[in-house]
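@channel anyone free to eyeball this complex?
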Amino acid sequence: MSISSRFSVGIHILALIEINKSGISTSEFLAGSVNTNPAVIRKIIGMLKNAKLVKVRPGIAGAELAKELSDITLFDVYKAVNVVQEKELFTVHDNPNPECPVGRHIQNTIEPIFTAAQLAMEKVLRSLTLEDVVKDIATKEKIC
Amino acid sequence: MSISSRFSVGIHILALIEINKSGISTSEFLAGSVNTNPAVIRKIIGMLKNAKLVKVRPGIAGAELAKELSDITLFDVYKAVNVVQEKELFTVHDNPNPECPVGRHIQNTIEPIFTAAQLAMEKVLRSLTLEDVVKDIATKEKIC
DNA sequence: ATTACATGTAATCATGATAATTACAAGTTA
DNA sequence: TAACTTGTAATTATCATGATTACATGTAAT
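replying in thread with the prediction:
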């Protein structure tokens, strides 16, 4: 299993909107960079819009960031594109046998552990912003 | 997306083998506690065996732990049941456009971030052993 | 107002993973 | 030999993903 690429595509989209801020970032333009279908981009942009990370309007070409780059964490993007639900990174099997000591308690024992692991992962995402991403891209671009 | 329940089932199996150590833990017995099909249990036990966490032999009823409880971390189980590959918790979209500054660098920029997030999650799993799980179950059992 | 073009969104499709189930070969013990 | 177990493959239903097509809706320029 793997977390949907909607997350990496969401980051790509936002970074490109920023880098292309002097131009107009249509879904077709963004799709050309991501290398996918414009409808896929519009779907993801719709999610970013619901999360108030981006401004887009029907009929008007182009998407813009709704916040400062440094105010958008990767966790914000992650939540926006809905790739992992709260406490559901891991699946705990359901209906274990309540007649058995292990079956009776396994869910309650495991759940906080899985939640802690998920939160540790998400903490890393909270610690980074799109500004970090864009700066890194800019650095790599200079070197090349 | 969610990580396969093979992981929680694997933990369940190992904990139950320990708690039932005076008895014989056949795949049918374990399946009764997990509440699934014995063939599912045998599949997972096969993975735990490959990882040398468990001893089982064809034709001979029952599985036994191959290590001390405190020597089996949840990370060991997680790797054994193969639920997430190294560096592949997240998916990075492929074939971004190399003609675009963002498309050109996004993969190299994102990859270490995703890896760091995954490692943070896995660090939590490394910090806990089956002994912790079994002790927690025992405590809960006393309270009830 | 008509034309051209953009976004929003639903429907369809192929693909791949999961988990349950069935079936049976092969090993073990009484 | 009979009864039982593990090992494993094949089949199935279900679900998420991502690509694609289609079209309604919205905007702007002429």
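from a first look: The first strand of chain A starts at residue 54 and ends at 57.
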